[in-house]
Amino acid sequence: MERKIKVWSKDVVDTLKKLFYEGHHQAEIANILSSKFGAHYTAAMVNGKAYRLHIKRGHASTSLNATLPKSSNPKIGKKKEVSIGSDGTITAKIQDKLPKDFEERINQPNKNSDYLAQLAGYDPKEYEVITSGYSTWEMPSKKDGTRTLYALKVKVRQRKQPKIDMDTIVKIANNSIKQQVVSTKLTEAKDTAEDNLFIPMSDWHLGWTKYEDLQNKLVGMVDTINERPHGEITFAILGDWFHSNSFERSITARGTQLDHADMYKAVSDSFKILDFLFSNALKHANKVTLQLVRGNHDNDTLQMFEYALKYKYPQVDVVMPKKGLMGYRTAFLLGNVGILITHGDTARKHLKTLFATEFKDIWIKAKAYNIFSGHYHHEKFTDEDGVEWYELGCPKPYDNYESKLGVTNSKKVSYIFEYGPDKLKAVHEY
Known about the structure:
This protein is α/β, with parallel strands linked by helices. The chain has helices at residues 10-21, 26-37, 43-52, 102-106, 112-119, 166-174, 211-225, 263-284, 299-312, 351-358, 360-365, 400-405; strands spanning 60-61, 79-84, 90-97, 127-141, 145-158, 196-201, 230-237, 285-292, 317-319, 329-334, 337-342, 368-373, 380-384, 387-391, 415-419, 424-429. It is elongated, with a radius of gyration of 28 Å.
């Protein structure tokens, strides 16, 4: 005898509530329930059941527990209302006794919205706060004399991926990443080496570009690093290391919408790449430095990443430009060669002049002058007024915007520039 399936079991009802809470439409919910529980559900059945449970989309629920998944349920207060909009946003109204640490928590800079969301039962790492507000007042109490109450209203939206903050980046940085083993051939002692390597990394756009896209190039770069000892190896991130300026949305620093970037993987891939490069460089050079300048895609995200890099790699000298230049450009000596790096989207017409005026100490000491920039994703070399300027391409796979414009014929290469004490000796292409 065939066992009869209970159409509206507790598990089915709980799943129905959760799907409505997440903003799914009736037809979507019906398909999910049918696939998961083996019975046939229609949009009409889903709509009818939701109506009887008082969880119709866009209307207030009679119980917070009726709509929130278990992991998000806070302790029930004196009064709560939750409504779900047709766009998937959730509006919660809470009235309760004021917590003892309310004033301290609410006055933390840039944290008050997150705190209000937490009081309403929403983890800011899982929910983006759209709007929030609160009020407090005193009421007579037989037990306490007076008691302070609060009311708050928050509007949130579930994130497509968890929010990444500094704690998360440090956690990823501390994860053990298996190193790739590359054979080394030491032909002389490091302390007698005079040659230096400069390794610019321009427009890698991690989050769109994946570690797997770069793996062969990285192996070639490490082979060059391991060929012999070097006096100094300087890596330089020339901006747009990350594809997005936000971990919540895929946007540039100016807010231009981009194709989706997986920023959690971007951070993980970043440490995987740098672990591989740094672990080999430190064995083959007396000094390893990482210079950074911001790009138009990652103005904020790269600055935050800098602090994690200093924490993760204390043996590497990690340098951001001085504050007066807002991270746009910097200059340094590699041997007796002066090098200026910039992303390439600002002050292009004045870079040679700025090299001499903003970095006078470097300019005076240098015997040769090189500028490195990116931004335009294609290569160009100029040699004017004693300054050699290398505009670099990028190894990033083409995105939809580039394909639409037909900008798909540039070389997808990276370089290592090998310097003697006073001048460039060789260029290695990968």
